[in-house]
Write a structure and sequence with these properties.
By secondary structure, the protein is mainly β. The protein is built from three helices and 26 strands.
């Protein structure tokens, strides 16, 4: 996590008050950000040492992005309202992904750990993080393509006392409300995770319904539940995603 000076933060806070058509040139000229075309940014503070925002991105009001080393936001990404993204070496939101509202995505600065860390948060193309989730990416958290962290109040954490382990969620996964994923947890692609499940290890086997405490594969996904992983996550999602 890079240290934010008071003067820089004040300048970013003042910039947040301007309309988008003024924000874009200010970010480019004063902070060296690369900002694409038709980018709309609400009353939000965006602080990163290196920042690239591609075309047609929408960022709502009262978001706080602070202390990020490298921020990459792909085209047509949507960030809703009242989200916090803090710290880490890299935050990469791939094209057509979405972070909706009231999420806290945080990397602990200078953690006391006995192993090497990789503090990166990677959200795959077309994937969605809905509302009220807490994600600790003191070590790497990867969410694959067109996956949904759905419902509310799930927690993903990579830091456990003096050791970290990454978390990996595959592509086309659907994760219900109030899920807990412990350090080293992994969810295979094309899986559905039931409400309240606790992932304590790296699970294997695609196309499974996962549930329980601790969670385990329960059965193959039925045809009637297949739509949860196959439907488009957004109406405007291109067919090539």
């Amino acid at each position: 996590m890079h240290q934010v000076s008071k003067s820089r933060f004040l300048a970013l806070a003042i910039t947040a008050l301007f309309p988008s058509f003024l924000k874009r040139p200010i970010y480019r000229l004063c902070f060296g950000y690369r900002i694409g075309r038709r980018v709309r940014i609400g009353f939000s503070i965006i602080d990163a040492l290196e920042c690239a925002i591609e075309d047609d991105v929408q960022i709502g009001h009262l978001n706080l992005v602070v202390g990020v080393q490298k921020l990459v936001i792909g085209d047509h990404v949507r960030i809703g309202h009242l989200n916090i993204i803090r710290g880490g070496a890299e935050v990469n939101l791939e094209r057509y992904s979405e972070i909706m509202r009231l999420n806290e995505i945080n990397s602990i600065p200078d953690p006391v750990v006995v192993n090497p860390i990789d503090p990166r948060f990677l959200l795959g193309a077309g994937s969605i993080v809905t509302a009220g989730h807490k994600i600790d990416f003191t070590d790497r958290v990867t969410i694959g393509r067109r996956s949904i962290l759905g419902g509310r109040n799930s927690s993903l954490w990579t830091h456990n006392r003096q050791r970290t382990r990454p978390i990996d969620i595959g592509s086309f996964a659907y994760i219900g409300s109030e899920i807990r994923i412990a350090p080293g947890g992994a969810i295979p692609s094309r899986c559905i995770v039931g409400i309240g499940s606790v992932i304590t290890s790296a699970l294997t086997g695609e196309g499974q319904l996962i549930a329980g405490v601790p969670a385990r594969p329960v059965k193959d996904i039925s045809e009637e539940d297949q739509f949860l992983i196959e439907q488009k996550t957004r109406e405007d999602l291109p067919d090539d995603l």
